[in-house]
Amino acid sequence: MQAKWGTSGDFSIRHDGSNTYLQDAGSGDLIIKSNGTNVKIIGDNDEDIARFTWNGSTQLYYNGSKKIETTSTGVAVTGNIATAGITSVTLGTSNFVAGVNAGNSIVSGGNYNTVVGDEAGTAITTGDDNTAVGKSALQANTGGAAQTAVGSGALATSTGSENTAVGYLALNHSTNATSNTAVGYRSLDTNTSASNNTSVGHLAMFANTTGANNTALGQIALRNNTTGANNTAVGWKTGFAITTGTNNTYVGREAGYNTTTGSYNAIIGQACRPDGVNSNYAMGIGYNLDCGGSYTTLGINTTDTRLNHGTTNWVTVSDERYKKDITDAVAGLSFINALQPRTFNYKAKGELPTTFRAYEEGSTEVFKDTTTQHGFIAQEVKAAMDADSSIKDGFKMWSERTDGSQEVGDAALIPILVKAIQELSARIKVLEGE
Q1: What's this model's pTM, rounded to 2 decimal places?
Q2: DSSP string spanning 280-312?
Q3: Could you list the residue range(s) of the whole structural domain that residue 41 is in?
Q4: Cα pseudo-dihedral 306, 249, 256, 169, rounded to 10
Q5: Residue 410 — φ and ψ, nearest 5°?
Q6: What is the distance between the alpha carbons of residues 353 and 422, in angstroms, rounded to a whole number?
Q7: Does residue 126 form part of some domain?
């Protein structure tokens, strides 16, 4: 029986009782064989890729050459898979490439690579287990292994190993670096040989060249770092200006944004930063703080308290130029005499008022400390303050928390103790006849 199939020419179709055959009417070449369930391509195939089944096996061909065969027991990869534009994938095993010149240098030893995109992985020769998706992704990699590049130009110049780059031009200039992770538009773009960096965010660590062991999480975090090492920056614009500074830890939007060469700083809080671009050992927690080098600073804006490292004295601004209505304080010995120093022990958490945050129903665990304490009772301090007209509203020795528990700040007594000592000194002079 003769049949016309489109305009491709004449074909003959015949059936032998078991199988149906499609043959070229001119040459007699067998094209397709079918038994009603399976289809098998016998001769050349004009399509780039053909997929068909035969006797329980699903087979994938490229230009008539079988590349993958799957059966009920698994997948047998008999060669590489390539699509149009691939010219010279030769001896590697189990590679998948797609795109003009993608992976076209893979030779013996280059195995298990997935390369998709024009010019992607063009230099891979013996590298294994690489994944490149995007134009020019992993373009210069030769023998580097276990690299993942997703995005146009990602890891384009890399010859290293075990790098991961996701985003346009991420790790674009990396050469022989290893173990870097870059996620985001141009993240770690100019990194060359530095290793062990993690950069996540738009332009994060963009300028880094040889600085190693850094972590940047956030848009433009560590944006200008070049050779600085061992820095950690978490938040938008954190550590933005660092160039060569090392061992800094900044957490919070714009934290440490001004540091350039300063090192060994640890700061948490939005816009908190060292008080100088090259300050060292500044520690701080709060909001919008200037944190002095070799100080720990706590607070908000200019309302801060700080401690010089190695000392026990917390200090705050006391400059005369901040103050007005300055007069001599009169609270002194009379208030001190009204206070009652006590010894006491703390109750179990289950004995506390149920409104207190520290309350735990049925708990026999002692609150804070099991040893006997010396101190004041907050309610007695408040009573002494209320009874003394010389105590002004700004006195912060006593306060109350939101759960109703009352607290005492003993350090607030220092000016009053000084006044009491002065009063006693004056009395002693009178008694001594001076």
Answers
A1: 0.76
A2: -S-EEEEES-EEPTTEEEEEETTEEEEEETT--
A3: 2-77
A4: -170
A5: -60, -30
A6: 42
A7: no
End-of-domain residue from the set 77, 111, 140: 77
Instruction: Note whether residue 312 is domain-resident.
Output: no
Tens of each residue's pLDDT in the chain, 434 residues = 333 333 345 667 777 878 777 777 776 666 666 766 656 655 544 443 444 444 455 555 444 454 444 444 433 344 454 443 444 444 467 788 887 788 777 765 688 888 898 899 888 888 899 999 999 999 998 888 999 999 999 999 988 999 999 999 999 999 999 999 999 999 999 999 999 999 999 999 999 999 999 999 999 999 999 999 999 999 999 999 999 999 999 999 999 999 999 999 999 999 999 999 999 999 999 999 999 999 999 999 999 999 999 999 999 999 999 999 999 999 999 999 999 999 999 999 999 999 999 999 999 999 999 999 999 999 999 999 999 999 998 899 999 999 999 999 999 999 999 999 999 999 999 999 86
Q: How far is CA 257 from CA 33, 124, 205, in A?
A: 71, 40, 13
Asked if residues 157 and 173 have their Cβ atoms less than 8 Å apart, the reply is: yes
Gap between the Cα atoms of 199 and 233, Å rounded: 10
As a whole number of angstroms, the distance between CA 221 and CA 232 comes to: 9
Number of domains in the chain: 2
Tell me which of 77, 101, 135 is where a domain ends: 77
